[in-house]
Structures
1.
Amino acid sequence: MSQDLTKEQQLFDQEVTRIENWWNTPRQAGIQRPWTASTIAALRNTEPLPCHVNPFALKLWDLLHEHRSRGTAEMTFGATDPVAVSQMAKYMKTVYVSGGLSGFSENNYPGMDHADYPWDTVPKVVDKIFRGQQWHDQRQRQVRMQHPVEERATMENWDYLMPIIADGDMGFGSLTATLKSTKALVESGAAGIHIDDLAIGMKKFTIGQGRTIVPTSEYEDRIKGLRMQLDIMGAETVLFARCDLDHADFITSTIDPRDHEYILGATADVRPLQQVIDEAIMSKKSSNAVRDEWLASAGIMTFDEAVEQQFLNLTKHSTKSVDSQLDGNAFDTYKSQVKYGTCLSRRRNLAKKLLGVNVPFDWELPRSHNGQYLYRSTVKAIVERATLVAPLSDVSWARMDLPDYNDIKAYHEAMLACFPGRLFAFAWGGEWKFPPSSGWTSERLKTVSQDMAKEYGVVWQIQPMYMIQGVNMEIERSAAMWVTDGMGGYYDKIQRRATERKPWKVDGYEKMSWCGGYLSDAFFAAIAGEEIARK
Ligand SMILES: C[C@](O)(C(=O)O)[C@H](CC(=O)O)C(=O)O
């Protein structure tokens, strides 16, 4: 390489200006970055590759904003098969690539969604779908161009090039893994990516206890990592900041004071939970039963609750001498002095000063086998995390399992109070019961998607993996039919119905257009020198 230092600096400065100009475009202007354009320029290649996903990402961005201004939502579901996606294009404008579904259907070692599949599983599925979409688009265009203009008006014309939103899970490890998986997703064709605050290797939704989140600071770093990689690539990819704190039972560490308010400790004089469980296992007792017993006896609560309990005890059992020292408003004073991010030791000191005694509380005692700390999830904590990462992300998403409608409402209202006009995403689940005790009525359920779009701006709503139940039922039906009715059944129930569909479907079913029959013929004809387009 030549050593023209002036030229090198000039090119670098030009790149910095290009980045600054890009950050001033309407799509980028709302993002508040903690780094400068020159930092990003220094992390770019000397000749950055064009980002082929950008038209799709901008299409997604516009679509979400159109929905926001109309008060409607894009409804889609997770798919891993490009053929299925080609049919979805008739009704929806985006497609979701679910990690759970990919791990279950695109993996040689399938299993429940513990995000334990190889980190490049989702990028590979995105790549497959992206290429499939391009091919369907090419196939349709070629069929249409075979017909004169006036005939084309009666033909189908689908937009197969639906922006893909991909599951980035928890970034799959350290920050460098987050950067790599973001890069792979963007290169594969992801117009949107979501990333969450679950702990790597600890995603577990199958049994009662298990959801583990990382500290706030680690979540913030993941969002920063993803955004920084998008900046390095010059990618318009939409960043969905998902927060999985709802129903979380554990947090991996106490390092971030912003989480201290929600970490649970034992207030009774008990032995460490894990020690008790280990002994139970040795003596062939049920660890679950022992655990439940321990939890019931340990006085598990947050530190603030322990302070309140101590305050109530002191006031109830106060003697004259204690009474004279204890301010009757001590707990209110305590509450007014602890703020978001006040660490445990300051809370302890303050409580001691106001109550005159040490408040018993130990968050080490309930730690789990893997060292996680017990955690109490609240809507307030979700809002705090979502608020923190909102300026760096484009869409907020509170992941809620078996959600309480009142929580959904409280979360979105709190966020909108800080960020009016914010875009939100929401994932519905499978086999949820929607009980009235959680704010659900059959009336509400009927229109909840539309209502959430209109009232809160939840513009992207998905059924992430569970639509596969519908697909399974169709396959089951076809399998039963084929086995009992054979070719006669296929002819009558599938072939005839597909080919006789009116109006004529470009997608197919005639002359094998759905599997590219026309397109192959066109290749042969063009090579032979025939004109294949009609006017
Ligand atoms: C959206 C999700 O990430 C997925 O992989 O589809 C899962 C879905 C689920 O387990 O219900 C998730 O929400 O974590």
Note: The longest strand covers residues 190-195.
2.
Amino acid sequence: MALNPVIGKLVSKRVVLASASPRRQEILANAGLRFEVVPSWFKETLEKSSFAAPYEYAVETAKQKALEVANRMHLKHLRTPDVVIGADTIVTIEEQILEKPVDKQDAYKMLSRLSGKEHSVFTGVAIVHCSSKDNRLETEVTDFYEETKVKFAELSEELLWDYIHSGEPMDKAGGYGIQALGGMLVEYVHGDFLNVVGFPLNRFCKKLAELYYPPPKHTIHHIKHDSIPSVETFEISSDGECNSSDNTSCKSAKKQNSSEIICTSGKCRNGNGNYNVSMDSQNGVKENTTQFPTKLLQLLDGFKASKALFVSSKLKIFDLLKEKGAMSSVDVANQVKASVCGTERLLDACTALGLLEKNHQGYSNAELANLYLVSDSESSLYNFVLYCNDRLWPLYTHLELAVKEGTSQNHCTLGKKEEDLFQDFCYQSTEMKQRFMSAMHSIAKVTARDVASAFDLSQFRVVCDLGGCTGALAYELVEIYPEMKVTVFDLPDVVTNVSSFQPSGQNTTQVFFSSGDFFKDNLPEADLYILSRVLHDWSEEKIHTLLSKLSVCKPGSALLVAETVLDEKRTCPARAVLQSLTMTEGKQRSGLEYQQLLEKYGFTNVQIKITGNLLDVILCIKKMSTH
Ligand SMILES: Cc1cn([C@@H]2O[C@H](COP(=O)(O)OP(=O)(O)OP(=O)(O)O)[C@@H](O)[C@H]2O)c(=O)[nH]c1=O
């Protein structure tokens, strides 16, 4: 892609974003960066008065956040990342640094201070390149900051409190979110908008370009210093990583004094990912611009892409290419016993989707496929992909009926209508059982690190993972916290089949399995209970049964819940909202809803970490008795 070879430079690297901020995750993901999220545990408590300027404080905090994650990942024997990115956003007004408000009163103080005035938003960013020498971590830090000026309108008391009660200010520097309701408070913005939201993407790309493409001297005059290096510059310096068809069909040139990119083909993407179709008349004046609904087309094609992924996984094409290296379509077709023309079309589709690469030697796996689609890779999602095809695809084909009736269509897809149909389906035969457990294991494995490291759990020694299935999360926990002992509590049918999922790590003897039904049987004693991907599946009544049991655990013990947490509008993230369409008896909840639910059963100090990956994490503590 012409626009992001700098980002493309990071494709083969293990990039970690050391931030829990969902906004940073979204900005970087939208820019096409592939990364893991490991939120930093660095406490933002540097002495502000020891810094000559506010931005120095933000830069140092960003650096410490990134270094803490780099060190932790290295020390905990997790694979050392190649690059860790940390960021810190602060608001400054009249020499004072404002961070996230601690409570509503604090938010009120901040916002009334900003009312009617101009303030600065600084985001400090640290890019830490890591390497491991003789088992020691070596780091190289590049840091920078960006300043944006924002002016607030005069805010009435009523508006101020309405805004505070919306809940939006609490996790945001200065107590506002310019990208959402807070946008209504703003009169003007001078500078990079995304810098206010939490990440200065433009300057970040420039920094990457500086790091990865030090420009040859004779081309220096082509680079405009107040903008991302022009598209032309990217293409020249992209080591041939650009998609060749992009290069030929869209010779981009940047108009001077304007950020608009004109393409000679007449087609060019604008900031929304839509195409502006512009028609140049003979005298060069643009006559007509219409928007092409790319997003809509992507939605229309979504099902085709999913099915191409499912079928190529089912045919084990990614395993084959991993084993044999680049292959022609004819050889692949012979090996998978499929037609040549059909196979070629499927391989081209997978290439278009970024799962395969194609060159004169034939087709080979893209990094994404090697990492996640090869069936025996460390982080394989192969079994989960098959589960999506075999189990979820048929369910979603009955969506219209599901919406009309307001019920799950399990009976249509599985052919029976019983209360415990889901469990029946999953455990009806040894093969089904193994397949279901493999699917759950593969998805649990790729989310386990996020869940296990969202909070510092080192104080907990005796842990019980309720419904922990194959123990994927339990094994990750004992890897990170060597003092921990984890009991996985699950149905007898599950527990008798877990041996094949045991990894060969050193702490595996600290994981135990205990069989039982968490709705009916006594739960093992523990000082930390875990419910990962459990609550969203069950009815209010069943959740009541389960949480009532947990509510009598000893005061001071904790409960960790891993779920996708919805925003307060209940429309984001889309994957959770889409999952709700299966109409199980359960439901997805927002942060506030989880908080209220957990508080109802005597858990307090509810903390929520939005990881931006599949699962967010909630930690709460059982209230000490007052008598
Ligand atoms: C002004 C403004 C800020 N923010 C958010 O404020 C947090 C700053 O806090 P931080 O300490 O820099 O980051 P964090 O959220 O604690 O995450 P982490 O990087 O883990 O420290 C970040 O979230 C930003 O998006 C918005 O979403 N919109 C805005 O208009």
Note: The longest helix spans residues 430-453.
